[in-house]
Specification:
single chain
């Protein structure tokens, strides 16, 4: 039985950090379902003309691309007012922005820097939902927080990012209780390794060459399109019984990434010699 076509016509979707990387992949797929997009950016954006062309294929409405710093309350207020010029509601909210300093040594742990990381990576889902309700009088139908497997797996220099992602997931679980009476589905999507410009900047492109040598197939590395399809599914109405959950997408790589699998692989190599 074929799956029904997902149609988000007349749905208004706000995606923070929606012009690059994972946010852009999500934007593409929500646009393909005809959602009206509001994409925020800070610290420079992608080529807007190119992004608009991506989103407008197949007759989808042109996205609104708006500059707003998620950690600045004044920017948040201005963003809501700007969106209100076009619509009277936000139906889908994707909290995607994360920022934290890279940690190399214990001496890099600074309380001020950590609190600033919380302002960017954990608190915006709270601040934006409060601002949405104040501006439009109701909460979105779907709220999705974008996380990573950092809280449960080691990544070099990822200390503050992992901590703030864990806090984001904690908030989201509690939000699912607070928002359910308002008809809102609230979930977290944890993505495994996604090859993006930001990943390459933090860890280096060489990581993927190493991963290949270690037996990780290219098909097991997430793409931004994989991320976009997953978020679209959560906004489709087909998974509305899913609420307050943290869903991990990683092709099962983290399950098999342990000493036992390495031992099994080594035995296979021995038998092939």
């Amino acid at each position: 039985m074929p799956l029904p076509t997902i149609n988000l016509s007349n749905r208004q979707a706000l995606i923070t950090g929606g012009t690059q990387g994972i946010g852009r992949g999500i934007a593409r797929h929500l646009a393909q379902a005809n959602a009206q997009l509001y994409l925020t950016y800070k610290w420079g954006s992608a080529n807007n003309d190119e992004l608009i062309q991506e989103c407008c294929r197949n007759g989808a409405p042109s996205p609104h691309i708006l500059e707003a710093d998620v950690a600045e309350p004044e920017d948040t207020r201005g963003l809501m007012q700007a969106i209100a010029e076009h619509t009277d509601a936000i139906d889908i909210f994707i909290s995607n922005v994360a920022f934290a300093p890279r940690i190399e040594h214990l001496a890099d742990y600074k309380k001020k820097s950590f609190f600033r990381a919380i302002e960017y990576s954990s608190w915006p889902i709270i601040a934006y939902l409060q601002a949405i309700e104040r501006q439009f009088g109701r909460y979105p139908r779907y709220v999705i927080a974008i996380s990573s497997d950092g809280p449960s797996h080691y990544y070099r220099g990822y200390d503050f990012v992992a901590a703030t992602k864990a806090l984001l997931e904690h908030f989201t679980r509690y939000l699912s209780i607070h928002l359910l009476p308002h008809g809102t589905c609230t979930n977290v999507v944890r993505f495994g390794t996604v090859q993006t410009d930001s990943f390459n900047t933090i860890f280096g492109k060489e990581f993927f060459d190493f991963a290949k040598k270690e037996g990780l197939d290219k098909e097991q590395i997430l793409t931004t399109d994989d991320c976009g399809r997953a978020v679209l599914a959560l906004c489709s109405g087909l998974l509305d019984s899913l609420n307050g959950q943290t869903v991990t997408l990683d092709y099962g790589v983290t399950f098999r990434d342990n000493l036992m699998m390495r031992y099994i692989d080594s035995k296979k190599e021995e038998s092939n010699d």
